[in-house]
Amino acid sequence: MSVTVPKAALDFFKQLEKNNNRDWFNERKKEFKTVEAEVKQVYNSIFETLNLHDDIDKVKMFRIYRDVRFSKNKSPYKTHFGGSFHRTKPKLRGGYYLHIQPNNESFLATGFWEPAKEDLLRIRKEFEMDDSEIRAILANKDFNSVWGDTFEGDEVKTAPKGFNKEHKAIDLIKKKQFIFTKKYTDKEVLSNNFLDEVNSSFKAIRPFFDYMSDVLTTDLNGVSLIEE
């Protein structure tokens, strides 16, 4: 029997959205734990499938409890499941994320959320030196039919310090994040082929990951930074 996202997960969060308080949740904690265990099977199944064509060292499913210390929103619980899949470092870079939320708010995300300062500089220097390879990846029909042809995420207004705002690749250089997302309806998430869709979408990002992994493990002369 194939693993699927349980409808009970979306139903539970729809109720939680209207009753986001500890009393309501504690009365239904057993129900939540049952749903959580089923959804954990979904993440574990994706982890196993990803490892057939990638090298994933761990899957992390995030807790439902919100950290409200520095947030204006004091609701104690998240109304979604989230989980990330980590590629094996230092050779492989990039990450995968699956977000399961009712009301057609589910999505996949992949790429680089918060590159370390030195990694961000290295990426920008690569784009400054030669932007042809990354543009070829973004322009590839097989790639952009799944993920689109442009990065999502934050960017600086003009140019990062030390870079020419008139550079032909400034649209890439000014990026601070290199993210792609893909949204899904509740019907799509609950379908029998959703996990196959997740896997094929994640598999389609590999040309980008292979390129970025090569960039981040070499210097500008192409010399490896990884100790053998």
Descriptive terms for the model:
alpha+beta, 228 residues, five-stranded antiparallel β-sheet, 43% helix
Structural features, described:
This protein is α+β, with helices and mostly antiparallel strands. 43% of the residues lie in helices and 14% in strands. It has ten helices and five strands, in the order H-H-H-E-E-E-E-H-H-H-H-E-H-H-H. It has a five-stranded antiparallel beta sheet with strand order 1-2-3-4-5. A hairpin with a 5-residue loop joins strand 3 and strand 4. Helix 3 packs across helix 9. The longest helix is centred in the N-terminal third of the chain and has 22 residues. It is globular and about 60 Å long. The termini are far apart. The relative contact order is 0.15. The mean pLDDT is 96.
Q: What would you call the quaternary organization?
A: single chain
Order of helices and strands: HHHEEEEHHHHEHHH
Number of strands: 5
Beta-strand share of residues: 5-15%
In helices, the fraction of residues equals: 40-55%
- Head-to-tail CA distance between termini: 43 Å
Number of helices: 10
What integer value in Å does the Rg equal? Answer: 20 Å
Question: How would you concisely characterize the structure shown here?
Answer:
This protein is of the alpha+beta class and 228 residues long.
Fold topology:
Layout: H1 7-18, H2 22-27, H3 29-50, E1 56-61, E2 81-87, E3 95-100, E4 106-112, H4 117-129, H5 132-139, H6 141-147, H7 170-173, E5 178-184, H8 186-190, H9 194-204, H10 206-216
Antiparallel strand pairs: 1-2, 2-3, 3-4, 4-5
Helix pairs in contact: 3-9
